[in-house]
């Protein structure tokens, strides 16, 4: 007995010793991996040129399994003179290794994928891809955000095959409002219950992605004449069969409740996609204005890790913008359109005189350097084309640059890499993460500011997700300017979503009837995307003769022209949100000189930092749809004529030109990027 006891005791001691040794070895190995792997690329950017290995060769981007970008945990201190002239990175390919790609991501705006694939069009025009997968039928300019394509458009690109069983499933919880570098918490597959419903997941995502948090009560920007209608407490219930009432709507027997200033919708016995559910919280225009003022007065950007002469250039002009000479009767600018026309004019002049942009050469077509000039996402393509060809602002030496442009197309990223029916966009985000790590390894500029002096221009609905975390410090010019999706007011730029019907003539059909000849009070036509449009049609379709509110118009040339003529003949053009907050109708209304009526909670209007949208549009709360006609009729004729004139004056700021013109859409986009950078930067 004693011998057995002694033997077991010795065995127990030996086992503990071996486990301890193995534990020390494992910890040492993991510590080594933690210290080395995430910093490999960034550390290379610290070495002199002679010590930099040419590890970035070929045309593929390295993918690290680490969920954090190279600049997240790396306290870099590098001289601005340490510019690395490593051989230029040759391009990008699709990932061949999916080991780091995991996680079933429920497509937030994808209730019906097949509808989007029916409209794939990869017509090549001139040097770029033209009319690639437009989400519109004739005059009905409607996104189906379920866009995706598993077909190769370049022979050298291999299709990515994502297996959820092999890759596992990760849920990433991120604090979108964090002022520090984002470090997501990753829950493993085993830690996440497989019985979580979609509603629970989307609710958690909404909580974690609040971009702007305020303590003010929700209220919308209103005109004095409409206050009596908008401030009315709405408590109403609406029950309808959407499939029979509005044609293409996918909701059945949905219950809509408008209570305490917000919409709620339930669908008995059916789980709803997030894009078909109203937002949990609402940030009003009033709150957005307060946020903009607060962020300009107290910038949230972190100070650079080392100083730069270019930062001093920007600081030198900041005081000139804040204290500009008074502008009176400017022939080129219509003062009511702007928050402060004097500040805008001075800032624009200083931009033309000062701003220099470096465009990264890294990245191959079609995702990089290949603009799409036609269709729903044309804004990002036109900006790319005009920016890369603009000699006035572009410099070849990055040491002379105030801003750095990453010229990728979010539309082509989705078109090229998204695997049809996969409901998984993780590889798209990993692709851009690898790209940012590449430029961080090759150049010192990203690591100096954490990307704060870098900018991107992206119009696809998925861009906020694709650029999350690893590009969180960048200035993002986004069409999907949703404060609940991480859009930062005062740093990011709301990019106008423009539907370009002709790449050769983007100004085709411009203009509309005079105000005196516009007999239709309000017009809307389009597909039933999202939860809001069925509500609009339920209240106003075929209800009153002077409000022409339709569902989708039938395809065909006649229908297309009818759609355009309706906009040209209407006083107000209704612009309700679809799956996402943005809509091309806002710019279309301006294009056809119709006053846009924006109905989209949490949407930041284009160029919000400089334009006074109250002068040429109406921004209504979603809860005010039942009062729409009363609100429009309450606006006096004199006020309507002022707004219609302002729309015509605003038109020049929302137009693309083959050769950029002063104050046009290209210059307005670049100016807002410049303007927000000026007000982000902090003195040393």
TrEMBL record:
<feature type="transmembrane region" description="Helical">
    <location>
        <begin position="19"/>
        <end position="37"/>
    </location>
</feature>
<feature type="domain" description="Exostosin GT47">
    <location>
        <begin position="352"/>
        <end position="633"/>
    </location>
</feature>
<feature type="region of interest" description="Disordered">
    <location>
        <begin position="175"/>
        <end position="204"/>
    </location>
</feature>
<keyword id="KW-0472">Membrane</keyword>
<comment type="similarity">
    <text>Belongs to the glycosyltransferase 47 family.</text>
</comment>
<keyword id="KW-0735">Signal-anchor</keyword>
<keyword id="KW-0333">Golgi apparatus</keyword>
<protein>
    <submittedName>
        <fullName>Putative xylogalacturonan beta-1,3-xylosyltransferase</fullName>
        <ecNumber>2.4.2.41</ecNumber>
    </submittedName>
</protein>
<dbReference type="InterPro" id="IPR004263">
    <property type="entry name" value="Exostosin"/>
</dbReference>
<keyword id="KW-0812">Transmembrane</keyword>
<keyword id="KW-0808">Transferase</keyword>
<dbReference type="GO" id="GO:0000139">
    <property type="term" value="C:Golgi membrane"/>
</dbReference>
<dbReference type="Pfam" id="PF03016">
    <property type="entry name" value="Exostosin_GT47"/>
</dbReference>
<dbReference type="InterPro" id="IPR040911">
    <property type="entry name" value="Exostosin_GT47"/>
</dbReference>
<dbReference type="GO" id="GO:0102983">
    <property type="term" value="F:xylogalacturonan beta-1,3-xylosyltransferase activity"/>
</dbReference>
<keyword id="KW-0328">Glycosyltransferase</keyword>
<keyword id="KW-1133">Transmembrane helix</keyword>
